[in-house]
Amino acid sequence: MNDFTPDTDLIDFGELSPEVNALLQKGVAAYRRDADAADRYFREALALSPQELPAYYCLYKIHTYMGNLDVAWTVANEGMREAARQAGWPSDPELWPPQNAAGAAAERFALFTLKALSFIELKRGKRDKALDILRILRTLDPRGSVGWTVIYELAQGVA
Question: Is the four-CA dihedral 99, 105, 110, 116 of positive or negative sign?
Fold first, then answer.
């Protein structure tokens, strides 16, 4: 099943099981020519190992690109909750401790995915919800290490 090796990987997802890495690499390779196949590969990776966070990222990212914003929102929320669980945090981001975004992988993924959720909400036309998320990010990541300030600037332009 693992057709990819470190020499042929398209994307470095970090340390993953070889099976999940192979599925994610296949999904990345398939995306431009067959988004449905990419979706299947990413979902298969997620089902195989739901604790490996890059599968959530791949899935919510392609659905955001395709304009399937409800799907993207659902998957991003699932990934954020899994990352929070791994970090030992509650599921509610308002209860998370402020972070150095260069911290552990789960913590960084949680913050990054919270930023993605603000973008998805903005694209869904829910500017107020996006701003609520950005307010949380301002508290959690005051230096803007995960790039939430870019989404904030976009939200200001939407006003």
Answer: positive
Please tell me whether residues 40 and 106 are part of one structural domain. Answer: no
pTM (2 d.p.): 0.89
Q: Please say if the pLDDT value at position 137 is more than 60.
A: yes
Token pair of 58, please? 């791949």
Cβ–Cβ under 8 Å, residues 151 and 123: no
- Residue 145, domain extent: 55-158
Instruction: Looking at the structure, tell me whether residues 66 and 139 fall in a common domain.
Output: yes
* 100-132 confidence digits (pLDDT tens): 655 688 999 999 999 999 999 999 999 999 999
φ, ψ (nearest 5 deg) of residue 122: -60, -45
How many angstroms separate the CA atoms of 150 and 20, rounded? 31
Tally of CB atoms within 10 A around 102: 10
| Same domain assignment for residues 123 and 97 | yes
Residues 39 and 91 in one domain: no
Q: Degrees (nearest 5) of the Cα angle 120, 51, 10?
A: 70
Number of domains in the chain: 2
Task: Say how far residue 33 (Cα) sits from the centre of its chain.
Answer: 22
